[in-house]
């Protein structure tokens, strides 16, 4: 019973990996954004990291100015 279950799990995982259509050797193919346009990528990184870095300061300013 355990042998049959382990075989079934192994076959299922193998089929999922084969049929997932992921391009394994191409850099950037599994990212949720495109890295082909470097100016767009730079703008996205500035927005992403800039919003995370500035959020604590804006929150502090909000609380200090709150009545």
TrEMBL record:
Q: How does it sit in the membrane?
A: Single-pass membrane protein
Pathway it works in: Energy metabolism; oxidative phosphorylation
Where do the TM regions start and end? 41-64
- Which keywords does this chain's UniProt record carry? Membrane, Mitochondrion, Mitochondrion inner membrane, Transit peptide, Transmembrane, Transmembrane helix
Asked if the keyword Ligase belongs to this entry, the reply reads: no
Places the protein is found = Mitochondrion inner membrane
Q: Record's PANTHER family?
A: CYTOCHROME C OXIDASE SUBUNIT 7C, MITOCHONDRIAL, CYTOCHROME C OXIDASE SUBUNIT VIIC
Instruction: Give the UniProt family note.
Output: Belongs to the cytochrome c oxidase VIIc family.
Designated name of the protein: Cytochrome c oxidase subunit 7C, mitochondrial
């Amino acid at each position: 019973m355990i042998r049959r279950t382990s075989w079934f799990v192994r076959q299922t995982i193998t089929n999922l990996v084969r049929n997932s259509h992921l391009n394994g050797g191409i850099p950037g193919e599994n990212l949720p954004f495109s890295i082909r346009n470097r100016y767009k990528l730079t703008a996205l990184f500035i927005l992403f990291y800039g919003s995370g870095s500035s959020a604590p300061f804006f929150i502090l300013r909000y609380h200090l100015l709150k009545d």
